[in-house]
Write a structure and sequence with these properties.
single chain; 199 residues; alpha/beta; Rossmann fold; 2 domains; 6 helices; 36% helix
Length: 199
C-alpha cells in the first residue's frame, strides 16, 4: 500500500451515528471511505469496489456479519482483503471464531476510540507492505529458555508472550534484512493476531 488516500476502506455498520463517526475520522486521516448499512449492500460493495480493508460489524440487517465474512473469504477475488471485525461483543469464543474464519483483527466497540482504530488500520497496511516485498517468517516463542523473561519485559508482553490487551499469544515476525550481504540478518517484532498491535 502507499500513502493514505490510495487505500480504500469499506465500513459495513448499521448504526448510522457510529458509521458516520468512523467514516469521518478515517477520511480525515487521508483514506478513501465507503460505507454500507447492511450485510447485502456491504457484500455487493466488496465485490464491485474491491476495498483494501473492511471494518465489519457482526450484527447486521439482511445478512449477518459472519455470513459476509464467510463469503469474502470464500471468493478468490476478495479472500486476501483485510477484514477487521467491529462488534459490541467481546466474548473470547466469538473472537476466536472470527479469527478462525479468516478475520485479520477484532475490535470491540466502545473500548476503542476512532484514533485507535485508525492506528490498527495503519498497522495492517504496514504489515501488508512488508509481506508483499519480503519473505516473512512467523514464529511462536516459548518463554522457558535463555533470556525469555528479559525479552518479555523489554517488549512489554505478559507471560507467556501474550498481548497485554487481548490476552492472546503473540507472534514473532522476522523480516529479512538485506543490508548485510552474504549474511542472514532479520528485523523482528512481536504482533498480536487479534488486535494487530505491534510490540
Amino acid at each position: 500500500m502507499g500513502a493514505p488516500g490510495k487505500e480504500k476502506i469499506l465500513i459495513i455498520e448499521d448504526d448510522t451515528e457510529l458509521r458516520a463517526v468512523y467514516a469521518d475520522a478515517i477520511a480525515a486521516s487521508g483514506y478513501t471511505v465507503l460505507t454500507a448499512e447492511d450485510g447485502d449492500k456491504g457484500l455487493a460493495m466488496v465485490r464491485t469496489e474491491k476495498p483494501d480493508l473492511i471494518l465489519l460489524d457482526l450484527i447486521l440487517p439482511t445478512l449477518p456479519g459472519f455470513e459476509v465474512l464467510k463469503s469474502i473469504k470464500a471468493d478468490a477475488g476478495t479472500r486476501d482483503t483485510i477484514v477487521i471485525i467491529l462488534s459490541v461483543i467481546g466474548e473470547k469464543g466469538l473472537i476466536q471464531k472470527a479469527m478462525d474464519m479468516g478475520a485479520n483483527g477484532y475490535v470491540v466497540k466502545g473500548s476503542s476510540k476512532p484514533n485507535e482504530i485508525i492506528g490498527k488500520i495503519q498497522t495492517f497496511f504496514t504489515k501488508q507492505d512488508i509481506e508483499k516485498h519480503a519473505d516473512v517468517y512467523r514464529l511462536f516463542v516459548q518463554g522457558n529458555r535463555g533470556d525469555a523473561a528479559k525479552l518479555q519485559s523489554t517488549a512489554g508482553l505478559t507471560k507467556p508472550f501474550t498481548c497485554p490487551v487481548c490476552k492472546q499469544e503473540t507472534m514473532l515476525i522476522l523480516t529479512p534484512d538485506n543490508s548485510h550481504p552474504g549474511e542472514h540478518w532479520f528485523s523482528a517484532h512481536f504482533t498480536c493476531p487479534i488486535c494487530g498491535k505491534i510490540f
